[in-house]
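User: Assemble these into one structure.

Assistant: Restating your components, then the assembled model:
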Amino acid sequence: MYCETNGNSVAEVSLELVTKARSLANQLKVQVEGILIGNDLKGLEKQLYAHGAQVVHKAEDKRLEFYQTLPHTSIVCRIMEAEQPQIGIFGATTVGRDLAPRVASKLKSGLTADCTSLEIGEHYEKKTDTKYENLLYQIRPAFGGNIVATIINPDTRPQLATVREGVMKREELDTPLKGKTKNWNVEEIAGKDDFVVEIIDRQVEEKKVNIKGAQIIVAGGYGVGSRENFEHLFKLADVLGAEVGGTRAAVDAGYIDHDRQIGQTGVTVRPKLYIACGISGQIQHRAGMMESSMIISINTDPNAPINSIADYVITGDFSEVVPKLIKYYKKNSK
Amino acid sequence: MKSLKIIVLAKQVPDTRNVGKDAMKADGTVNRAALEAIFNPEDLNALEQALSIKDMVPGSEVSLLTMGPGRAAEIIREGFYRGADDGVLLTDRKFAGSDTLATSYAIATAIGKMEYDIVVAGRQAIDGDTAQVGPQVAEKLNIPQVTYVENIEKIDAKSMTIRRRLDNGFEIVKTPFPVLLTVHSSAPDCRPRIAKNVMKYKHARTLTELQDASEDYTRMFQDRPYLKIREMGVDDIGADNEALGLSGSPTKVKKIENVVFKAKEAKVISADDKEIEDLIVELIENHTIG
């Protein structure tokens, strides 16, 4: 498990993946070990123990304040070569998607990008009459979300995968493990040449919008028609304590900001309730929200593709329906 | 300053963004044959970055490298139309079935036969969305990579200063040459075709294309050598057969499921006040809202 950090905490996605790794490790009867790389990592390993990591490999160096491809590749490869894990998992983030392919190339092992599910299973290879047990099934959407592929690496180790944020559930253990920390000397495992690329400036805004963590999402598509019309959605979200999201088409049209984009190229969400307004439901969008517990679709087109995955379909114009939802919610809620 | 040699990695892909009704089969799955073959969108962003480096450092040369079947020569022509100086089609049956590791091995081996200071690729191709080949080629060439490039801020004799996109912001990095860049879709769009280049290169062909069309190519290539699109195969790049195709690919596809529109029973209601109030009451009662 390669664990990302952001400032003073382990990244949410890495905690989600440690949780998942725990259940895979249980099935395989092996350990979960995390890799933490940074400058001053303080007690971050405790967060990993709390989610199920038994061992945390730490590599600290003042030059590693921020992520850099080359030193992280060297460090991860060295640790993996020494520890020989069966499976290596990374978040499918800007960091993980930069690092994992480089690591896979160096270790000459197979990597599957952007998995949405991981399972353990077996495989029989007809050509060589070989039976494989306990393989990692790496499951991912492909071809623009139109197919779902199960990928395996029968012969190379580690079996490497990046996993999308938000698709696995994060769960702390009732009692944290009493884990072990192993410290690695960065001078020894990363060369001078690994620092040839220099970070000159870095500007990162705090994430203001948190649609990933929202229990209820009111989302709009191109059918909403304008930035002003999105105000209806914000009002409903305000009343319900929800967040507002949008499809790629709505974002591209400038109706709503990019950080609210839901779908294959945006974030994946699985709220308790998803209210889709004027969303036709292209597969790329559905891929990012179809695991919502309940979906309400409001659309003038009774045959909109999204209706096929909805629990409730309200046939009508959202600009008429949304104010009614607000009105009757106010009337009936205590 | 000294001019630079730039290689752009481009891929021909089926246009998965526009899976319209006519591309859906009766069983709800995608009919790939009905999808148009296009220049991978982020590879066009990459081509633009390469051409803008050429603008900044006059005398630099932009070569396109694409790996694919014979028809991918179309990508090279498109590159010529927009201002590329040269193009190579990496094509061989032995490449079939390559995963990203085997693909990056083939591409890196081909690049090893060419001169370069900068390799530029799109972040990812829309048919696979893996974003793996760029970094893997960089690793195999043993050069640094800068991913998610949005803009090249400055170039001097020894280094390049680049803005790269992060999740919630950006980073400015300085890298020496040679380097591999992958370009993000938020980078500038590619400049359009240049009419003069379209006239000049519209008959550019690979040898295989001409042989297939049974055209007399010897004279044409003699008179106008720039119309010959170079093809390279396994023997030309000196690649190891074992590291290519299925045998060079550690990942195997175990199963493919088409995503089918599953009709789940939806409760359909109208925009009528009574029906909406009933729904709200139901949602409050089952604790979905409130």
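The two ends of chain A are 46 Å apart (CA to CA).
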